[in-house]
Each structure stands twice: as C-alpha cells, then as structure tokens.
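Priority: medium. Attachment 1 of 2:
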C-alpha cells in the first residue's frame, strides 16, 4: 500500500480522534516482535509532528534510544516500508473500531466471517452468518451488499447439500430475490449516474444563462433520465431521483421546484429514522438544499425553521459524527449561518463569527475542495462590502483571482473580476479601474456572461470614472429602476445572485450601507 509525497500516512494520523488513537495503541499492544514496536515509534513521531518532512522524521527516529527497538540502519527505503506497514495497521484498527458503528463495515465483516467459516468446511455456519448479514442489509437498504450476500449464498447452495433444500421454495425465493435486487442495483446505478452528470454539469457551467442553455440542460437531463415506476422504487433509488431533480431545477433557476424536491428528499429520511442514522451526510445535504432554495426565494420564515432543524440535528448527534460528517455540517452550517445574516441584514454579527469559522475550516484545509474555499471567500467578500469595508473585500477577492484559472468556473471568474472593479472604484482607485474596465467587459463577452443588467453596471462605472465622483441622485434612482426591471427576468436575475446590484445602487442615493438597507427591509417584512 503506497503512500504519496504529500504524505497520506501523515494526513491519516492527523485525522484520527483521541478514541481512534487510543484504540490503535490497544490494538498494537497485542502485537509482538521488534518490527511491531518500531512502527508504533514511527506513529508517535508523526503524531507529535506539525508537518511532514522525511529528513526530520529520519532524524527524530535516529535520536530515539530504546533497548527493545532496533533503530539502527533506518534509511529512506526502510522508512518507506515501515510507513506502508503502519498505514495498513491503522486501517485494520479503524475497521475493528468502526465495525459496530458503521453498518456497511459491519455487514462486510459478517460476509468476511462467512467466507472464513466456509473455507474451514463449516458451510452451515457460513449460511447462518449470511442470514444475519442479510437481515442487517435489508433494514439499512444496502442493495449492493445484499447482492454480494446472495451471490455468496448461491455459491454455497450450488456446491453443497444443505438444510435449505428441506425448506419449501427456499432456493426458488433465493433466485427470485437475487434477480429483484439485481434490477434494483442497475436502476440505482443509472440514477446515481444521472446524479453525477447533472451535478457535474452545474459545477462546470453554473446557472443557465439563457433559453438556449435551459433547453440544452433540459434535453441533457431527460435524455439521461432512466425509466422508473415511482411506486416500485426503493429508498435509495427515490433519494437519487429526488437529488437529480433538485440539481436539475436548481441549475435551471427553478427554485420552487428545487425546493419541492428537496422537501420530499428530507421528508423521505424523516419517514425512515433509521436511515438518518445510517447516512446523516445525505440527510444534511437535503436540508442544505432546502435552506439554499429558501435563501434565493427570500422565504425568511421557512429558512429559520429549517435552520433550527439543521442545528438541532447536529447538536443531538454530533458525538457520533465521523470526520466527513463533521466537515459536511461545517460547510453547510457556515453557509447557512452567513445566508441567515445576509437575509436579515445583520452583517456586523456575521463578521464577529468569521474568526471562529476560519479557525474551524482551517482544521479541514487539506480535505476541503477548492470550489468550497472559493465560495466561502466570495461570501466573505460580499459581507465586508455590505459593511463598506472595501479593502477587506478586495483582499478576499484577490485570493480568488490569484488562484489557478482551472480552479475557477467561468461565471465565478467573471463576477470576481467585476467585483474587484467595483471595490476599486469605491476606494477611488480610478486609474486602476480605467486600466481594467475594458478588459473586464471584453472578458464577460468572451465568456458569454454579458446581459442587459451587466451592461448597465459597466455604463455606470464609466460615468463614475468620467466624473471622478458619484452620479446625481436622479440618475441613480433611474438606474435602480432599470436594474429592478432586469432583476424580474428569469435569466438576467442570475447576475444578482453573484452581486446585489440593486442594494448597492440603493445604498448610493439613500446614503446608507447595504447592511443597513437589508436590515431595514427585514424589519419591515417582520412588521
């Protein structure tokens, strides 16, 4: 089992909880021999290190003096073999620890136990273990593992005369169930493929820009949608189907339909509480899309209701969360927290939460994908902008702009460039803006991101450059009215998801910060 230069072993050790480290020590305590003790010494060295550097590790190992461990002759080749062995042993200890917590691991352990019993000629005991695995797998809707259990069972039945022959229709039912599960697996796989395709399309292109895009996405989605009968599909088939429709409608800016499918997704889990225990990550993703669609549609009350459900769920179950579940909650939880403050206009309160958010996310820095980091930075940039802290906003945007271009989606790259222009003009960096404005406008046209609302924004920026001052209130109000008209258009409205141009212009002629305007709007809604 190879480890890479980035070092996977080091990342694995740093991801372990205190309980997992303690379990590893107990597990290795049962092992004997000099080599066994040596990889434990390596574990301790890596556990106490803040970063991985091979020369430092070799140095630290050579400096250790223990009578019961032979540390002489530690070189790069021996260290590589030792790391490989340690990596394997950590995974074994984790499997033992999680076999009772993780249903998938538990079922596989039962299947493995059955194979061991069969190899020893105890095929009746092997069948008994498979029956137990089947019961657990059926309850957890684990169709892929069910198929594996059926195949093991059929293999034993085909090679030996067992007591099953005495049970009426036992073999016929086994074959029938095996065929049924095989169909379910094929259907689940097709729906999961659709999931990946439509979600991958969104990651690549973002929201649809026009009717042509909408037609393409619709054709793409329905041409890949497999045939299904709603009343016959299993739990995970239904979840995958609802996920696909959420992402399809979300990409097409049809937030009411995305909300409707996300609502059914969450309620499906609520109807089977056991599945929430089995897959909390998928349940939280459903809640995330409920919150996200509520945010875009400005459903304040529903947003607060589901956000409370989301937080309550975490507080009740966080002790049983693994590292991945913890990360899922942090990403979606912080996104929802910021969105809540954006809706209410309480940007100052949100700003106070940033240090803790950044500290928490830093602990997952190596495993958070670039897209998540970019979106978090973009949200924080908007937060600072709404508070009229243009320098801090610009700092966040420059972090995005300086990334490798293949990390940036076209729409994000375009609106980041425009956002930078707006920050600079607010900072009265007129020379810089005059140098960048034409190139930015051309970039929008090149990436097919230009629309009537964006054209109005560029016209406004050019007028400000010419005046070297703010436009008269009458012109600003006229611009605001025109932007509001474009915001009502289905496709043009997407531009306002990246930057709230109307709130920005309104802050000009009302001479208040965006934060104050949003807060007043929220209070009026409440009244």
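Attachment 2 of 2:
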């Amino acid at each position: 089992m190879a480890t890479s230069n980035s070092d996977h072993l080091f990342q694995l050790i740093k991801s372990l909880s205190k309980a997992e480290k303690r379990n590893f020590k107990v597990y290795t305590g049962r092992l004997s021999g000099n080599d066994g003790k040596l990889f434990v010494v390596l574990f301790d060295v890596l556990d106490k290190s803040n970063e991985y550097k091979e020369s430092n590790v070799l140095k630290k190992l050579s400096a250790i003096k223990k009578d019961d461990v032979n540390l002489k002759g530690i070189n790069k080749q021996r260290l590589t073999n030792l790391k490989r062995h340690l990596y394997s042993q950590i995974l074994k200890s984790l499997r033992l620890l999680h076999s009772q917590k993780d249903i998938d691991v538990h079922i596989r352990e039962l299947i493995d136990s059955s194979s061991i019993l069969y190899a020893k000629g105890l095929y009746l005991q092997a069948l008994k273990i498979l029956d137990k695995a089947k019961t657990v797998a059926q309850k957890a809707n684990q169709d892929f593992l069910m198929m594996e259990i059926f195949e093991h069972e059929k293999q034993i039945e085909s090679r030996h005369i067992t007591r099953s022959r005495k049970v009426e229709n036992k073999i016929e039912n086994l074959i029938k169930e095996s065929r049924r599960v095989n169909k379910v697996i094929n259907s689940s796989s097709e729906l999961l493929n659709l999931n990946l395709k439509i979600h991958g399309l969104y990651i690549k292109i973002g929201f649809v820009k026009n009717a042509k895009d909408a037609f393409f996405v619709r054709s793409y989605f329905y041409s890949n949608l497999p045939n299904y009968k709603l009343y016959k599909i299993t739990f995970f088939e239904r979840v995958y189907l609802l996920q696909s429709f959420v992402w399809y409608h979300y990409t097409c800016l049809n937030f009411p339909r995305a909300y409707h499918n996300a609502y059914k997704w969450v309620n499906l889990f609520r109807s089977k509480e056991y599945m929430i225990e089995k897959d909390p990550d998928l349940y939280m993703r459903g809640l995330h899309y409920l919150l996200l669609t509520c945010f875009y549609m400005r459903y304040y009350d529903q947003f607060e209701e589901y956000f409370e459900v989301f937080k309550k769920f975490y507080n009740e179950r966080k002790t049983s969360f693994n590292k991945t579940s913890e990360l899922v909650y942090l990403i979606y939880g912080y996104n929802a927290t910021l969105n809540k403050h954006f809706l209410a206009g309480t940007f100052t309160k949100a700003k106070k939460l940033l240090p803790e958010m950044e500290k928490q996310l830093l602990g997952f820095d190596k495993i958070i994908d670039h897209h998540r980091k970019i979106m978090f930075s973009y949200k924080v940039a908007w937060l600072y902008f709404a508070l009229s802290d243009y320098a801090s906003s610009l700092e966040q945007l420059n972090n995005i702009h300086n990334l490798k271009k293949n990390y940036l989606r076209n729409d994000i790259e375009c609106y980041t460039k425009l956002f930078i222009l707006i920050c600079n003009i607010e900072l009265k960096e007129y020379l810089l803006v005059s140098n960048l404005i034409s190139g930015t406008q051309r970039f929008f046209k090149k990436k097919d991101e230009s629309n009537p609302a964006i054209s109005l924004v560029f016209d406004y920026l050019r007028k400000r450059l010419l005046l070297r001052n703010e436009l008269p209130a009458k012109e600003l109000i006229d611009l605001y009215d025109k932007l509001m008209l474009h915001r009502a258009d289905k496709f043009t409205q997407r531009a306002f998801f990246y930057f709230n141009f109307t709130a920005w212009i309104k802050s000009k002629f009302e001479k208040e910060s965006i934060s104050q305007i949003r807060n007043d709007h929220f209070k009026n809604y409440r009244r």
